[in-house]
Design goal:
Keywords: DNA-binding, Nucleus. InterPro entries: bHLH_dom, HLH_DNA-bd_sf, Tscrpt_reg_Myc. The protein is mainly α. The protein contains 3 helices and no strands. The radius of gyration is 32 Å and the shape is rod-shaped. The protein starts with a helix and ends with a helix.
Length: about 110
């Protein structure tokens, strides 16, 4: 039997009458169950990708999983900012070296 027919069968009273309040409650409960299952699946997925401090996978409560996820994201932001600063320094260094090469080539042309 399909989920819909099961719900419809349960939405009837013992006298065989359809109970709209009971039907609405059952629909809401089914929706809430799917929502909780989805959240549970997302925590499981997050737990699988968030490393522990020792490089191992986290096997912990939802609060610990969220804490580790936040720490991982913050670490990524810090590393990204440091790498961006390094890129900016290297680009400035490259620009200075290009100017020096240009200057040396121009001097070489003058003395030929």
């Amino acid at each position: 039997m399909s989920d819909m027919s099961d719900t419809e069968d349960q939405s009837t009273t013992s006298e065989g009458k359809f109970d709209p309040k009971r039907h609405a409650r059952e629909q809401h409960n089914a929706l809430e169950r799917r929502r909780r299952d989805n959240i549970k699946d997302m925590y499981t997925s997050l737990r699988e990708v968030v490393p522990d401090t020792n490089g191992e996978r986290v096997q912990a409560s939802r609060a610990v999983i969220l804490k580790k996820a936040i720490e991982t994201i913050e670490k990524g932001h810090t590393e990204s900012a440091a790498l961006s600063a390094e890129i900016n320094q290297q680009e400035a260094k490259n620009a200075k070296l290009r100017e020096e090469v240009f200057w040396l080539k121009s001097i070489q042309l003058i003395f030929k």
